[in-house]
């Protein structure tokens, strides 16, 4: 038997989550966000499973988009940060990638395209996140430049919400209002109907007015809710990634004895401690606090001692039938990534996305 650490990727859960996202916004097209290796789930497998379900994929770079083409995925792809150089724009146009343009430098790059090389451009509007995008008062000007450029095919107006996961935060309403104003300015000045894209997962779920022609769900497709508080969504989602390993050692630890590097955990009573073959080298967060829940044989145990590179130790005192080879779930179908993330001061997004190469993947196919 080889080292038992692995993640299982359930493509049926992925498709069900995608259909759920679409059911919330049935008149919209779905741009499935599969950047960062599909949030650590494996971009190629995820794209192959979704190519019949969605209209388009979104990634962060030309490299990520090219990998899809090299694996035979021919759906349109949106580059969320646009092109980083004029050379990239030529490739993007040849490959039928759509590009975000969020600054003037990217608009200037258009001159490298020949008249026969056309491209769809998504204008990114900064409605308050202040990370990427044109200020609202510049957008009419950018739109008219793009309309005048022979190389530009369709133009889509987009923005990104910064607090859509906070369901009572009025800032989202303000972003939506600014965006609506910006859209109206263009529509009246140019007498066009402007296709738009606003919503990420939290927007699709919690902000009906953020749903538009194109939605951009990411995390919810993977069955992880974007909401850390007031979660109304998780019960509708099925976790796609389940991270598992096995117990490889068991010992009695006497009251007062300590476990692991730094001796950070001492037994308050005579205890039974199980060692599990998973550590930060496998994607388990090193800063998971003492007490972080771990499932062993379906029962909840608590992390005790520091997380090592290849191992963790869990307190299994009083649990039933724990042996060497007992099954351990770190997160997934039966223990939510978001719950573990809270114990590690992070969010489910980060836990699944930073899964390293060495962790074996098993795919449950459609
Ligand atoms: C990552 C990303 C998304 C997806 O966000 P989720 O919260 O994962 O749904 C949507 N739009 C943009 C611009 C992004 O960068």
From TrEMBL:
GO CC field: cytosol
Signal peptide segment: none
Domain of life: Bacteria
One GO term (biological process): D-alanine biosynthetic process
Residue positions where N6-(pyridoxal phosphate)lysine is found in the record: 35
Residues bound to substrate: 131, 309
Catalytic activity, EC: 5.1.1.1
Molecular function, one GO term: pyridoxal phosphate binding
Catalysed transformations (reactions): L-alanine = D-alanine
Annotated ranges, domain Alanine racemase C-terminal: 240-364
Pfam entry (one): Ala_racemase_C
Pathway assignment: Amino-acid biosynthesis; D-alanine biosynthesis; D-alanine from L-alanine: step 1/1
Keyword Endoplasmic reticulum: no
Keywords in alphabetical order: Isomerase, Pyridoxal phosphate
Residue positions of the active site: 35, 261
Cofactor: pyridoxal 5'-phosphate
Function field: Catalyzes the interconversion of L-alanine and D-alanine. May also act on other amino acids.
Annotated family: Belongs to the alanine racemase family.
NCBIfam families, per the entry: alr (TIGR00492)
Listed name of the protein: Alanine racemase
């Amino acid at each position: 038997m080889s080292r038992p650490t692995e993640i299982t990727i359930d493509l049926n859960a992925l498709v069900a989550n995608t259909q759920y996202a679409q059911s919330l916004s049935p008149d919209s097209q779905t741009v499935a966000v599969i950047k960062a290796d599909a949030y650590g789930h494996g971009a190629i497998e995820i794209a192959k499973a979704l190519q019949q379900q969605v209209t388009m994929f979104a990634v962060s770079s030309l490299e990520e988009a090219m990998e899809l083409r090299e694996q035979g995925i021919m759906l349109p792809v949106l580059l969320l940060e646009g092109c980083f150089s004029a050379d990239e724009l030529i490739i993007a146009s040849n490959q039928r990638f759509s590009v975000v343009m969020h600054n003037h430098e990217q608009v200037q790059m258009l001159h490298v395209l020949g008249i026969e090389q056309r491209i769809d451009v998504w204008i990114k509007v900064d409605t308050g996140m202040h990370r990427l995008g044109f200020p609202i008062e510049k957008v009419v000007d950018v739109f008219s430049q793009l309309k005048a450029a022979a190389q530009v095919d369709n133009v889509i107006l987009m923005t990104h919400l910064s607090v859509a996961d906070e369901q009572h935060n009025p800032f989202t309403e303000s972003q939506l209002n600014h965006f609506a104003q910006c859209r109206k300015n263009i529509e009246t000045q140019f007498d066009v109907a402007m296709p738009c894209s606003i919503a990420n997962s939290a927007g699709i779920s919690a902000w009906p007015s953020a749903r538009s022609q194109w939605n951009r769900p990411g995390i919810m497709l993977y069955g992880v809710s974007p909401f850390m508080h007031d979660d109304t969504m998780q019960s509708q989602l099925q976790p796609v990634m389940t991270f598992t390993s096995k117990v490889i050692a068991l010992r009695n630890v006497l009251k007062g004895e300590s476990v692991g590097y730094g001796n950070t955990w001492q037994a308050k009573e005579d205890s039974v401690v199980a060692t599990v073959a998973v550590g930060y080298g496998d994607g388990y967060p090193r800063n998971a606090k003492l007490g972080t829940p771990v499932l062993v044989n379906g029962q909840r145990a608590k992390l005790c001692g520091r997380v090592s590179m290849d191992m963790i130790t869990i307190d299994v005192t009083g649990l039933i039938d724990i042996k060497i080879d007992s099954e351990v779930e770190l997160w997934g179908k039966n223990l939510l990534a978001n719950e573990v993330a809270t114990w590690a001061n992070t969010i489910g997004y980060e836990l699944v996305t930073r899964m390293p190469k060495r962790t074996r993947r098993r795919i449950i196919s459609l």
